């Protein structure tokens, strides 16, 4: 499928790789189909979650475990059933990133991770029931302290 996007121009999306978020994402409940777009720089830890339903919409996402080694989530049985999760190896977890003009202030949402079953191509944004992890975790926190 050919998609004319705001951020990437015209891209070809393999329909077999489209991810389906039955409930959408928080604030974007009507947008349910997405594609993962890798970053061209293989050392860059961010990639893109491109909306199929709204080509102007793309979220920067990343593996939260890269930035918080102590990050942990528990996926409920209800969510496992909803996403058809059978094996732990079929699950990937991402956090939505906010990338401001000052890249030293990049933050990721650790409170609302994206859970994706790569086998069933189903995803869900969960809200964690803990205050251990913030909505805005600054990935370069040490740099911010030195700047301010």
TrEMBL record:
<keyword id="KW-0963">Cytoplasm</keyword>
<dbReference type="InterPro" id="IPR024046">
    <property type="entry name" value="Flagellar_assmbl_FliW_dom_sf"/>
</dbReference>
<dbReference type="GO" id="GO:0006417">
    <property type="term" value="P:regulation of translation"/>
</dbReference>
<dbReference type="InterPro" id="IPR003775">
    <property type="entry name" value="Flagellar_assembly_factor_FliW"/>
</dbReference>
<dbReference type="GO" id="GO:0044780">
    <property type="term" value="P:bacterial-type flagellum assembly"/>
</dbReference>
<keyword id="KW-0969">Cilium</keyword>
<dbReference type="Pfam" id="PF02623">
    <property type="entry name" value="FliW"/>
</dbReference>
<comment type="function">
    <text>Acts as an anti-CsrA protein, binds CsrA and prevents it from repressing translation of its target genes, one of which is flagellin. Binds to flagellin and participates in the assembly of the flagellum.</text>
</comment>
<keyword id="KW-1005">Bacterial flagellum biogenesis</keyword>
<protein>
    <recommendedName>
        <fullName>Flagellar assembly factor FliW</fullName>
    </recommendedName>
</protein>
<keyword id="KW-0282">Flagellum</keyword>
<comment type="similarity">
    <text>Belongs to the FliW family.</text>
</comment>
<dbReference type="GO" id="GO:0005737">
    <property type="term" value="C:cytoplasm"/>
</dbReference>
<comment type="subunit">
    <text>Interacts with translational regulator CsrA and flagellin(s).</text>
</comment>
<keyword id="KW-0966">Cell projection</keyword>
<keyword id="KW-0143">Chaperone</keyword>
<keyword id="KW-0810">Translation regulation</keyword>
């Amino acid at each position: 499928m050919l998609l004319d996007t705001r951020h990437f121009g015209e891209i070809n999306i393999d329909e077999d790789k489209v991810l389906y978020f039955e409930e959408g994402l928080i604030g974007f409940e009507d947008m349910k189909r997405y594609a993962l777009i890798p970053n061209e720089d293989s050392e860059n830890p961010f990639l893109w979650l491109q909306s199929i339903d709204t080509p102007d919409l793309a979220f920067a996402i990343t593996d939260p475990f890269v930035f918080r080694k102590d990050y942990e989530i528990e996926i409920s049985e209800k969510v496992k059933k909803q996403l058809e999760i059978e094996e732990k190896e079929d699950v990937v977890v991402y956090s939505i990133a906010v990338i401001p003009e000052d890249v030293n202030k990049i933050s990721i949402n650790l409170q609302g991770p994206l859970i994706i079953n790569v086998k069933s191509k189903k995803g869900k944004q969960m809200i964690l029931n803990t205050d251990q992890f913030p909505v805005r975790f600054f990935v370069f926190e040490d740099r911010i302290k030195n700047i301010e």
